[in-house]
Structure formats: structure tokens, C-alpha cells
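Incident review: delayed structure delivery

Summary: a single-chain prediction request sat in the queue longer than the usual turnaround. Root cause was a stuck worker, restarted by the on-call engineer. No data loss occurred. The affected request and its eventual output are reproduced below so the record is complete for anyone auditing the incident later.

Affected input:
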Amino acid sequence: MGQQPGLVADVNVTVGSWVMAAGRTEVTRPQRVVTAGGVVNAWEPAAFGLYEDRDGDIWEKEERGWRLRLQGGVEVEPEAVWGWVDGHVCDYAPFVPWS
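Output delivered after worker restart:
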């Protein structure tokens, strides 16, 4: 009686940009990835589309950059375009796809 659960497998799990490994207590941050187009920040989602940030605000990634679409459920500055690093959008990561 009272058996303790054990590990089923020694695996790594990737959830969004977070990597969690079995048997470890810390979370590993992703490294920068180099592509043919240059250096890409591993925290920034690659695909265009709508994303929810850690505060629950909705952003849209498009070719020119990021637009803050909804903040607290209210539309704000729909014409402003923000950069991932220079516009400090990365400060609101992690981002998850929004549907």
C-alpha cells in the first residue's frame, strides 16, 4: 500500500517554447536558431497569425511585425506595428496560438 509513482519513460516534452525533461526540476530555455535568413529568436513564433501572450492579450504577427489587437478585450492602436526585440513584444512572451 502507498506505492510511489515512478517515471514511465525518460523523455523531453516541448510545450510551445518551453522544454521540460523528465527527472529534472528546471525548465530549459530554447537556444537561438540560425536559419538561411539569419538569426531567429527562438521565443518568437515563426508563423504569421494570432497569438495570446502571457497576460491574455491578443497579438497578430504579420510580415511587417506585430500588432496588438486586443488588450483586456478592448481594441487598441490597430495601426501600430511593433518589432519583436526593438518594440519589446518579446517582453510579453511566451506566446501561444489563439483561435
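Verification: The two ends are 45 Å apart (CA to CA).
Action items: add queue-age alerting; document worker restart procedure.
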